[in-house]
From TrEMBL:
This protein binds to the 23S rRNA, and is important in its secondary structure. It is located near the subunit interface in the base of the L7/L12 stalk, and near the tRNA binding site of the peptidyltransferase center. Keywords: Ribonucleoprotein, Ribosomal protein, RNA-binding, rRNA-binding. Belongs to the universal ribosomal protein uL6 family. GO terms for biological process: cytoplasmic translation. Part of the 50S ribosomal subunit. GO terms for cellular component: cytosolic large ribosomal subunit. InterPro entries: Ribosomal_uL6-like (IPR000702), Ribosomal_uL6-like_a/b-dom_sf (IPR036789), Ribosomal_uL6_a/b-dom (IPR020040), Ribosomal_uL6_bac-type (IPR019906), Ribosomal_uL6_CS (IPR002358). This is Large ribosomal subunit protein uL6. The keyword Hydrolase does not apply. GO terms for molecular function: rRNA binding; structural constituent of ribosome.
Amino acid sequence: MSRIGKKPVELPSGVSASVSGQTIEVKGPKGTQSFTATDDVTIAVDDNLVTVTPRGKSKRARQQWGMSRTVISNLVHGVQNTFKKDLEIQGVGYRAQVQGNVLKLNLGLSHDVDFPIPEGITITAAKPTELTVEGHDLQQVGQVASDIRDWRRPEPYKGKGIRYKGEYIFQKEGKKK
């Protein structure tokens, strides 16, 4: 039984939602986002509440119930506020800078990495070793942050690489003579 799926999503003032079939569209001050749910759940909008109920008692229906409710909650948050991921770059000579719509990364490779910033995402570099990825779509913000991190994941011996802010990297002991 899903416990998160039972809780209805509350729509704050200035945010509206409409359902057509299995697609819910949420409109707010920062834009419009939509989500198409599977046929395993039913979505209903009453006044300022969005409720999700499962169709049947199958395991898949219960899984989709909680997941759909969480995605709708993220849509409501996204049209009102932004989601944010902070990244830290550690390593000698490793740095990043934003030039127009491109993020330039110097990561100790034989070439500089030019990462095109997707539409709907804002990347800022307050310092050459700190990045902030912001946007209204939680999934897209997380995916872009992960794609940037994949260029140089933190390694366990010296800790060099790109990591999420506050991420702990377990340091291994090197070879002994």
